[in-house]
Amino acid sequence: AEYDLLIINGLVVSAEDVREVDIAIKGDKIAAVTARGRLDNTSAARTIDAEGAYVTPGGVDAHVHLQEPPLFGKGSSADTFETGSRSAVCGGTTTIIVFAPQQKSEDTLLATLEATHAKANGKCYSDYSFHLLVANPSDNALAEFPALRKAGISSLKIYMTYAALQLNDGQILDVLLAARQHGITTMIHAENNDLILWMTKQLEKRKMFQPKYHATSHPVMAEIEATYRAICLSEFIDAPILLVHISSPAAAKIIKQAQDRGLPIHAETCPQYLFLTKHDLDKPGFEGAKCVCSPPPRESEVDHEGIWQGLEDGTFTVLSSDHCPFLYDDNRTGKKSCIDEEYPEGHFKYIPNGCPGVETRLSLTMSAGRLKMAKFVEVTSTNAAKLYGLYPRKGAFVPNESDADLVIWYPEGKLEPFALKNEMLHHNVDYTPYESKILKQWPRYTVLRGKVMWDRDNGGLIGKAGDVMAQYLQAMSMRDLARTLAKPTHGSPTNPNESGTPASRLIVITP
Ligand code: URP
Ligand code: ZN
Ligand code: ZN
Ligand code: ZN
């Protein structure tokens, strides 16, 4: 056969537009994107009829925590690379960018990278790449930046909060300078740690320990102050940054003002800030712990609206999951991990922060029907690929260049809206914060480099971990990622390798 797989009758979505075209796949690459019907007489090993449904590039989730050590209190990551990447492909995400976590006690990042490779190698269902998580920017660690760059790392994350990970402002400046010199993008978790600790003390004095006080202890002002400080430090060094998991319209506004001044400030938000509020932390018993993350879900739908607007106007470059998996019931003790003699009802400060969401990110967002389809693709796939050096291999349908990673959705009227249940998911977590939420869409098929990994109506997960498919992706060697990000992109970062390329090249009509 001439091709291995044809996808016909789809509405093919890119970050630019939606077109009625057919897709031909050869091996693991997109071979052709052609006008409707042109492939009708072509031979192919398999043809999938999309029946008029949307076909999108596979999701790129740029914020995933797997197999990390305990952050504080009890509980380390419940998902391994195997279960986390499995969950990803079942939800339409074909590339995950996972943190390689350095500990404060460690003086090297290269060893961290090597150890993380060992955890992932041969275990994954999806393609994967890494961000280095820098907890100890020692002279030795900073001197490793060129070697990290050679090893395909173009991004790192630092924290302004959490005792185990927090950097002071001087350390942040050290990281930003070294990152700028080597074309690395710095992702920043921006919350004011002292403000959080002070609020926690006030709550403890009043014996307010329930999960809902996690939100009280992480006020919007902690995010506002740290976001503004991060922008100042970035502007001072003239280094690009990406503010991760922004939760509040107020912080988004500060980011937009910086962007409007032409600064290379990018931002990320997550489904928890579009679909959860602080009231989800206020449930009977300890249930609210299932929605505890930092920053916390905010006040109301008014905040959600502000975050949607930030996605629409380009303030947010990416919509990632911040998948951070913890078990609700502790296997070892049979008790919730934060309940002990001292706090028989539990204490919010010992709840491990983070929600699972790598599998639900795309469906929640699609089901909301709020974003235009091209915008959906831009923020859930294309922009992450561009920012982190994977474009156009990922996040696009460029013939002969893009991997054949795609999602075929359900055509209108084919899927009855259904209530999400945790047992439908493929992570290793015993809950989803979105239990019982009504969804209107779910990936019908997920294709990873030409191979159907997920076929919801015929076997579900049919791909395997560790077969020839899943690969480590090196961030492409860009001459100067920092300079690229400094362009006034407003949500559409460009890869220097692609600059000057007309958009029309994304769809090539072949005879
Ligand atoms: O609560 C969260 N976000 N947990 C994951 C760790 C982080 O800060 O991204
Ligand atoms: Zn964070
Ligand atoms: Zn995170
Ligand atoms: Zn921008």
TrEMBL record:
Residue intervals of the Amidohydrolase-related domain: 54-431
Key words, A-Z: Phosphoprotein
Superkingdom classification of source: Eukaryota
Modified-residue entries (N6-carboxylysine), positions: K157
GO cellular component, one term: cytoplasm
InterPro entries associated with the record: Amidohydro-rel, Hydantoinase/dihydroPyrase, Metal-dep_hydrolase_composite, Metal_Hydrolase, Metallo-dep_Hydrolases_sf
One Pfam family named in its UniProt record: Amidohydro_1
Biased composition (Polar residues): 491-502
SUPFAM superfamilies per the UniProt record, alphabetical: Composite domain of metallo-dependent hydrolases, Metallo-dependent hydrolases
Post-translational modification: Carbamylation allows a single lysine to coordinate two divalent metal cations.
Segments of this protein annotated with the region Disordered: 486-511
Molecular function terms from GO: hydrolase activity, acting on carbon-nitrogen (but not peptide) bonds
Recorded family membership: Belongs to the metallo-dependent hydrolases superfamily. Hydantoinase/dihydropyrimidinase family.
PANTHER family: AMIDOHYDROLASE-RELATED DOMAIN-CONTAINING PROTEIN (PTHR11647:SF96), HYDRANTOINASE/DIHYDROPYRIMIDINASE FAMILY MEMBER (PTHR11647)
The protein's name in its UniProt record: Amidohydrolase-related domain-containing protein
Organism (species): Friedmanniomyces endolithicus
